[in-house]
Specification:
Length: 205
């Protein structure tokens, strides 16, 4: 259930240590934590959203997980939630035009210039952190992927939504990102439906 609050809490995830066999068969039952998402009531769902390339912390030499996550979010928010997302090629072109290289350190002036050029109401900023066994344990199959994101208002730079999702996995990180973005969209969709139901019940009382 998505929580709607006026003050966004700091979301903290605790990493739990697992003892794994060399074959990593014990990972089969590990689904991972559910997405934690907070959305303010001031979020205007009709306003266009520009998704910027996610910052990435990854040892993968072949796949740009930050760009992949941004593409998956753009498509999923449009297809699953019916939100108005801006074409990624326009977003990338506008960032190059304005000389914006690091979405992580955007000033309010940068946010407003980019939003104005794209005619966007919000910018979605995020980070992908992919840790393999080589990074923090002895087994190569011990992998943990974390996706965090925040939705920022172009008008004033305020954060109107915040989310994080961390999960252990086997196999390919790109496939796991696709799965996790799907889980995030389902959580947001179910939260919106519950919100509508609550509003209907309140109005009928």
């Amino acid at each position: 259930m998505i929580k709607h609050k006026n003050i966004l809490p700091v979301i903290v995830f605790s990493l739990i240590a697992f003892t794994l066999s060399p074959g990593c068969r014990s990972l089969a039952f590990l689904k991972g934590d559910e997405p934690e998402i907070v959305v303010k009531e001031t979020f205007d769902k009709s306003s266009p959203i520009a998704v910027l390339n996610f910052q990435k912390e990854s040892t993968s030499p072949t796949v740009d997980l930050g760009r992949l996550a941004a593409e998956k979010f753009t498509d999923a928010m449009f297809l699953k939630l019916g939100l108005n997302t801006i074409d990624r090629s326009r977003v990338n072109e506008s960032m190059r035009y304005l000389g914006i290289n690091s979405p992580e350190s955007l000033s309010l002036d940068d946010i407003q210039k980019l939003g104005l050029r794209l005619k966007a109401g919000y910018l979605l900023l995020g980070r992908v952190k992919n840790l393999t066994g080589e990074d923090y344990l002895s087994e190569d199959c011990n992998k943990n992927l974390t996706i965090s994101f925040r939705l920022v208002s172009v008008l004033n730079g305020n954060v109107v939504a915040l989310g994080s999702y961390s999960s252990k996995y086997e196999g390919d990180a790109a496939v796991k990102i696709d799965e996790m973005v799907g889980d995030i969209m389902e959580k947001m969709k179910s939260g919106s439906e519950e919100e509508k139901a609550d509003s209907t019940n309140t109005g009928s009382n």
